[in-house]
Amino acid sequence: MVLGSYLNDNTMKKILYVATVCMFVFSCRKEGEKTSSTMNVITDTTLVKNVLLKLEDSSGIGILKIYSNQYKVSGKIKIKPPCYFLKRDGKALSFSYPDAAVDETIIMQGKNGVQGIIFKKDSIIYEDYFPITSPYNIQEGADEIVYQDFAHRFYKNKYK
User: Fold this and answer.
1) Alpha carbons 33 and 22: distance in angstroms, whole number
2) In angstroms, how far is CA 62 from the centroid of its own chain?
3) Widest pairwise Cα distance in the chain
4) Do the Cβ atoms of 1 and 12 come closer than 8 Å?
5) How many other C-beta atoms are found inside a 10 Å radius of the C-beta of residue 133?
6) Alpha-carbon span 87 to 66, nearest angstrom
7) Interval 18-67: pLDDT, tens
8) Are the CB atoms for 83 and 62 separated by under 8 Å?
9) pLDDT 10s digits, 92-121
10) The pTM is what?
11) Euclidean distance between CA atoms 82 and 74, whole angstroms
């Protein structure tokens, strides 16, 4: 061993020890340092009032990402993933209710229920969550009465 003739036994032991420790340090990760297998999964996207809305599943937690600086957002998503927007003809169903001062109402469906999203002036508001036992067909959407209920429920709760 040519290298061994230049190094004594103590030095070789130290090099092997440092190499072993480095191998363990670099092979272990902290819990927060996840690999790409735990990345968020995009379940649905839509465009409402020129605002991109993206639903994601983040390890069993539903996330709605809203890409706009012109709206204030209030509330939080309460439905469990996978989450989808109710659609018709490939587009998210959306209804306006001027009598309730609601510009647009859309509905998200998760595995445990539905939740409304209200666009009102300069705000996007997460509405109530309702558990459902029979989910809607996300490609056919729901009757407008469901949207109307979300919009007017907000109006009643806010102004009574």
Assistant:
1) 18
2) 4
3) 91
4) no
5) 5
6) 18
7) 666 555 555 544 443 444 456 899 999 999 999 999 999 999 999 999 99
8) yes
9) 999 999 999 999 999 999 998 999 999 999
10) 0.71
11) 22
Q: How far apart are CA 12 and CA 8, in angstroms?
A: 6
Give me 38's structure tokens: 């735990």
Integer-rounded Cα Rg, in Å, for the chain is 26
151: tokens are 């919009």
Q: How far apart are CA 62 and CA 85, in angstroms?
A: 12
99, 72 in Cβ contact below 8 A?
A: no
Question: Residue 101 corresponds to which tokens in the numbers above?
Answer: 């001062």
Scanning the structure block, which residue is given the tokens 């445990």?
A: 112
How far is it, in rounded angstroms, from Cα 129 to Cα 24? Answer: 47
Written as six digits, the tokens of 55 are 């639903």
Give the per-residue SS3 of the chain.
CHHHHHCCHHHHHHHHHHHHHHHHHHHCCCCCCCCHHHCCEEEEEEEECCEEEEEEEECCEEEEEEECCCCEEECCCCCCCCCEECEECCEECCEEEHHHCEEEEEEEEECCEEEEEEEECCEEEEEEEECCCCCCCCCCCCCHHHHHHHHHHHHHHHHC
**Is there a contact between 151 and 102 (Cβ–Cβ < 8 Å)?**
yes
